[in-house]
Structures are given as C-alpha cells and as structure tokens.
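In this section we walk through a basic example: taking a raw amino acid sequence and producing a predicted 3D structure, encoded as discrete structure tokens. The instruction is simple. Fold the sequence below.
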Amino acid sequence: MSTFVRQIVVTFIIIGIIIVCCISWSHIKGAPWIPTRMKKVRKMLSLADIQPEEVVYDLGCGDGRFIVTAARKFDAKAVGIEINLLLYLWCQILITVRGLRRRVKVVYGNFYKVDLSNADVVICYLLQETNDKLEEKLIQELKPTARVVSNSFLFHRLPVAFEDTDKGIYVYRS
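The resulting token sequence is shown next.
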C-alpha cells in the first residue's frame, strides 16, 4: 500500500472517530440525534399554538428543522441549543443559507446551562431520563404562559394541555 493511500485511509478513520465522538457526546449529555419527520414537526408546532413573534426554544435542536419551521411557518423567533459541534455548525449554515439570521439563533452548548425564562414555547425530543432531569429547570424558569411540547417522552409534574399518545405528542403548560 502506498504512502498516499495510507494517508487517505488514516484520514477517513480519524474523521470517522470524530463523527462518532460528536454523536456519542450529545447522547451522553441529553439524547442521541434522531430527526423528527417533518409532518410531525409541523403538527407539534401547530399544537403549541405559536403566535407571531413568540420565542420558541428547541433543546437539542439537531439539524434545526424545528427552529427553521417555527420561524418560516409561524413567524416566531427561534433559538436552538445544540451540544453536538457538527450539528451546531450545520444549523449555522442552514439558517444563513435560508436567510433566517434575524429570526433564528443557534447556541452551542448544554441546554441545562441556558436561561429559558424568555421562552414562550420549548420543544423537546430527548430521553425520559433527560426529561426527568430537565423538568425542575422548566418549572423554575418558564413563565406561567409558556408551553412545553415533547416528542415521545413525558414530563410528570407539568400540567398536560394536550396529549396524543398514538403519535407520541405531549403539550404541557408551565
């Protein structure tokens, strides 16, 4: 095997390791990235009853589909929080290409450390253990009119406003 071919193989192995580490990191900190189908994204945002200019947070925003849709279809201001560096960078590119810089912001970091007090709506597609850990933060920080929309996993102490157990969509009032 030539030196050039070895360098290419090593480069691909290193890139693969970096990708696996980035994906694993987000799972350790909250949940793995599993994209929500766009039909469900639109349904969840509709059920949140988002009004123009409301602030929507997506905790673990992944590829940005919730924040982009909230801004484009509901005229909301949207904030995504992402701990996976590759997904964070992808979101930055996406919102720039779509011309949404004035309406959408992506924060690189841990959503447990971000103040959510100005949120009108919080979107979560996490794991049950993550929701359990997050619930007290939501109770402490969210204003009384805020809504929390969860994909698949429950919050046990927040008052339920709507639930569709067949589709795994839960809407809560703070």
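Looking at the output, two observations stand out. The beta strands are 55-59, 77-82, 104-108, 121-124, 147-151, 160-164, 169-173. The domain at 38-173 is CATH 3.40.50.150 (Rossmann fold). In the next section we compare this with other chains.
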